[in-house]
Structures are given as structure tokens and as C-alpha cells.
Amino acid sequence: MGPMIRAHSAAAVRAAEEPLLAAGEPLMASAAFALATHVVAELRARGRVAGSVVLLLVGGGNNGGDALFAGTHLVRRGCQVHAALVSDGVHEGGLAAARAAGVRVHRVLDAADPAAAVVDLARRCGVWVDAVTGIGARGPLRGPAAPVVAALAAERSAWPQEPVVVAVDVPSGIGVDDGTVEGPVLPADVTVTMGTAKPGLLLPPAAGLAGRVEVVALGLDGTLAAEPPAACSLTAADVADLWPVPGPDDHKYTRGVLGIAAGSQTYPGAAALATAGALRTGLGMVRYLGPEVPADLVRTLHPEVVTVPGRVQAWVLGSGVDPADAARTAELHEHLSAALAARLPVVLDAGALTLLQEDTRLPDLPATAVLTPHAGELAQLLTACGEETAREDVTAAPARHARLAAEITGATVLLKGPTTVVAAPAGPLFAQQDATPWLATAGAGDVLAGVLGALLAGYGDLIASGTHDGAHLPASLSAAAALVHGRAARIAAGLPPGPGEGRARTGVPITAGDVAAAVPAALRTVLG
Ligand SMILES: NC(=O)C1=CN([C@@H]2O[C@H](COP(=O)(O)OP(=O)(O)OC[C@H]3O[C@@H](n4cnc5c(N)ncnc54)[C@H](O)[C@@H]3O)[C@@H](O)[C@H]2O)[C@@H](O)CC1
Ligand SMILES: Nc1ncnc2c1ncn2[C@@H]1O[C@H](COP(=O)(O)OP(=O)(O)O)[C@@H](O)[C@H]1O
Ligand SMILES: [K+]
């Protein structure tokens, strides 16, 4: 695989650090030096280093220790460094070193209003270094740190010249392992994270508060490489490794045939959009099976599509299907049964998710069935499974709910949203943030179902043979489909393909059809 971004849990990081610390490795010194180097780089990018005024927000643990030692380097680089101690006790060695180097220490908890005191101090500082808590945090910020961080977060965007916020390891207060945000968090421009990324830096909603993530190698790579990451994000290079590219001996049946049973007399467009997404993704053939109106539309728009039953290597079921339509849902059931019996991968979208809820087979799906709900659909699905869930519960903790649904159903779950989260019953979570909010438009999900279906069809024979790595392949392919779909949206909207590039540009509105049409352009950026 390519250079996938891997994140490990707090516990895994501690376990990896242990032998190094026991061997006397100066991990904190390395972390602090790297942190200072990144702060200097941010300052340099904005003008000057010497003379800059830096604020360290120092909590009671080693996270604060990292910042205090980094402060000593920053003083040496000519910065004026202030440390606001937001905990009664702080890292003693770090504090002594900081004082000795000339860092100005402020015991803000002695003030009548610590939050106001920190805000006052922060107003004079161009860089705020958030070192309140790291992987040792338990729950949302509490004690005096909570109002201090809340006040800074509120003031951040009101500054005449916005400060640069550098978070140490993680933005303090996020759910390090699950990406939840249950209390105040200061959004960062850059997070300098130690040893490896943490799941909360990739998973929504916390990922949106981390800014650019810079990983500092602390020598943990060897130990951590031996175990699967808790969460990861595919890069374009990973997707290139996964994408089926036809060779000279391939023909349409080896490239993959996708069966699409989507769309209805009421919603024929879903059939056309799922088909368009699949065809642009590249595969041997699309077989469309559905009622007259959508079938006519598909044939008219895509004359290459076959509309008679026959062999397929994967299915897309349910986009634009009304679950109240008994005859149609009976057909979907039949396709699903046949697919499961043949061990074929199957995408269950929209209407297929609803019909699953009444199906006793629901708990027995294989990981090669990929459910593609948005937050509302996932909440309904979980509720139907006996886990009372509201849409807001899902958006507050997308990864946890996607995983829960995967565990209950046995299927792979691709949860759509600003960040797409993919969870199989076991193995790493995937988080893909490749799109643009312009993608939130009717039919975009149908296109995604088609893209994913085509990709699964390319792997259909391998998956049916059972010789692949079980649960992990469908999840990786789902993440790959999300990346390509997201990039297609960015390109259609006139944005550069990679997220984070050209943030200032906002792009233009797009239709779902535009997204499908841009899939080849997205693949050009991936496959080169
Ligand atoms: N283990 C090591 O030697 C290394 C650790 N490093 C740094 O150390 C950090 C972990 O250090 P610690 O284990 O000391 O833990 P932290 O510094 O993350 O947090 C512990 C401190 O935060 C307080 N705290 C915990 N939960 C809180 C909450 N919800 N609200 C307010 N305060 C809370 C605790 O009372 C304690 O004072 C890493 O994130 C990393 O930055 C790095 O220096 C690399 C080496
Ligand atoms: N704010 C957002 N930013 C980026 N992508 C988004 C955002 N909101 C939704 N999306 C994406 O847009 C698509 C919408 O799909 P879906 O909700 O199924 O719509 P529909 O059912 O109309 O096709 C999904 O791929 C989802 O991940
Ligand atoms: K922090």
C-alpha cells in the first residue's frame, strides 16, 4: 500500500513508548525540539521569527512538558515566550528549564478570572501553543482549563490579526481515540503530533479542529507498524495501488460486470446517476435491472448498458427505490439473496437499507456487503436494530456509530457526510475528507454507489473466491471510492483535487451528474 496516514490509539502509543523510555530515550526532548521547529516554520512562513511573541498554554502533564521545553528553544531563536500555567502542578523539569531559559511564567490560576487573564495575555501573542492535554486526557476538558480554552476559542476569530494556533499532539479536549468533541476545544492551524497520528486527528468531528497534521517521528514506527492502525486515511497513492487497471489479456467479464437494481418509476434519476458513476469508474459492463421508466432513461443516456439479467460480479441495490413498493423490494430481496449465496460483493444504498430493517437476515451480513447510509439513515438502521439512535447522536460520534452498525450487521458500513467514515466489524476505521461541501446535493450518493459498485465488481471474482483478506478489502475499496468521488466533486467544482490545497478558493456549484462526469479527471490525478 501507499503512504496511508495511520493513526494509533493512546494505549498503543503508550505501549510503543514504554520500551524506548525504559531504554532512556529522550522522547520528550525530541518531541519538544520538533515542536519548536514547527512553530519556527509557522512564524517564518508569516514573516519573522526573532521578536515574535509566543504563548504556551501549559497543562499538568507531559503534553505541557513538551511545550515548556519547546519554549526554551523558541527563546533561543529570539522569541518572547510566555507560559500560562492552567493547572496547579505542571511538568517540573520543563518548568525549571523554561524559567532558566527566560520563558515568562504566568500563574494565571491565581487571578480572580483565569480565563480573562489568559485572554489578556493571548492578545499580545501571535502564536498560541495548545499544550493543555494530550493522550493523557480523560473526557472533555474540565477544571480551570475548560473556561480558559472556551474563552480563547471564542476570541480566536475575533482577533484583528488571527493568531497561529499550534496544538501539541492533539487539540486539547478532543476524544483522542474516537474523534468526539464534547467540550471546549481551541481549533488549531497545525497539530504537531508525536510518534504517529491519533484517531481523533482523522475522525470527524474532531478532525476538523486539528488543521494540518504534522507527525513527528519518535522512533515508534517499528513497534507501531507491527499492529494495525486504529484509524487511517487513504492517500491518492494508496488508491492507485488498489484501482483495477486492465491488462492486455483482460476482457469485459474479467474487468467486472456490475448489476444495478436502483431507481423507480418515481425516482428514475437514481438509476441514471448510479449507472453514470459506475461507467465513469471503468468496468466491463453495467447490467441495469429495473422498471420501464428508469430502464428507458438508462438506455437513452447510456446505450452501452445491458438491461437483461445475466452474470454479474457485484451489485448496487436500492438507490432511488421506494421501500413501500412491495414488488420492487421483493426483487431487491431476490438479488440480495442470490448475491449473498454467491458471495458477491453488494452495495446496499437508500431503499435497500430500509428494507433490510425488516429483514431477519440483517445481523448475518458478510463484510462484503457494504451499507452506504448518511447520518439519518444510520440512525434509523441502528434504531431498527434495537439501539435507539437519533441523527444528532450519529453526527456527534460518526466513527462509533458506524462501527456499532458494522458490529451488529456484520456488514461494512460507509457513513456519508462531510468526512466519510468506513467501518468493518473489525480492523481499522477509514476516514476520508476528500470532498467539498458542494457535494451535498441530491443524487451525489447515487453516484457514489455506482463508483463503489464498479470498484467492487473489479474485485468481484477475488472476493467471491474468498481468498482475499476478508473484512479489510471491502473497507479499503469503500474508502478508495470515497476518495475518488470526493476528488471528482472538487474537480467539478473547479477546486484543486487534494483537500487543503488552495483553501482560499471556494469553487462553484455542481450537480450529481457533474460529479459522475468528473470521475475520469479524478482518476487522472490518482493513476497519473
Ligand atoms: N510518554 C512520554 O514520555 C512522552 C509523552 N509525550 C507527551 O506527553 C503527552 C501525554 O502526557 P501525559 O500522560 O502526562 O498526559 P497529558 O499531558 O495528555 O494529560 C495529563 C494531564 O492532564 C490532566 N487532565 C486529564 N484529563 C483532563 C481533562 N479532561 N481536563 C483537564 N485536564 C485533564 C491530568 O490531570 C494531567 O495533569 C502526550 O500527549 C505527548 O504530548 C511526548 O513528550 C513524547 C514522550
Ligand atoms: N458538507 C459536506 N462536505 C463534503 N461532502 C459532503 C457533505 N455533505 C454530504 N457530503 C457527501 O455528499 C454525498 C451525499 O450523498 P447522499 O446523502 O446519499 O445524497 P443523495 O441521497 O441525494 O444522493 C455523500 O457522498 C456525502 O459524503
Ligand atoms: K494539546
UniProtKB/TrEMBL annotation:
One of the Pfam families matching this protein, by short name: Carb_kinase
The protein's required cofactors: Mg(2+); K(+)
Annotated positions binding K(+): 63, 130, 172
YjeF C-terminal domain mapped to chain residues: 235-526
Chain positions recorded as (6S)-NADPHX binding sites: 62-66, 134-140, 169, 270, 320, 374, 446
Subunit structure: Homotetramer.
Domain of life: Bacteria
Record has Kinase as a keyword: yes
Annotated GO biological process: metabolite repair; nicotinamide nucleotide metabolic process
Tagged with keyword Cell membrane: no
Keywords: ATP-binding, Isomerase, Kinase, Lyase, Metal-binding, Multifunctional enzyme, NAD, NADP, Nucleotide-binding, Potassium, Transferase
Cofactor note: Binds 1 potassium ion per subunit.
Domain YjeF N-terminal: start-end pairs: 9-226
Binding residues annotated for AMP, in chain numbering: 416-420, 445
Gene3D superfamilies reported in the protein's UniProt record: 3.40.1190.20, YjeF N-terminal domain
Reaction(s) catalysed (UniProt annotation): (6S)-NADHX + ADP = AMP + phosphate + NADH + H(+); (6R)-NADPHX = (6S)-NADPHX; (6S)-NADPHX + ADP = AMP + phosphate + NADPH + H(+); (6R)-NADHX = (6S)-NADHX
Species whose genome carries this gene: Georgenia soli
EC identifiers of the protein: 4.2.1.136, 5.1.99.6
Gene for this chain: nnrE
This protein's name: Bifunctional NAD(P)H-hydrate repair enzyme
Functional note: Catalyzes the dehydration of the S-form of NAD(P)HX at the expense of ADP, which is converted to AMP. Together with NAD(P)HX epimerase, which catalyzes the epimerization of the S- and R-forms, the enzyme allows the repair of both epimers of NAD(P)HX, a damaged form of NAD(P)H that is a result of enzymatic or heat-dependent hydration.
Record GO terms (molecular function): ADP-dependent NAD(P)H-hydrate dehydratase activity; ATP binding; kinase activity; metal ion binding; NAD(P)HX epimerase activity
Family: Belongs to the NnrD/CARKD family.
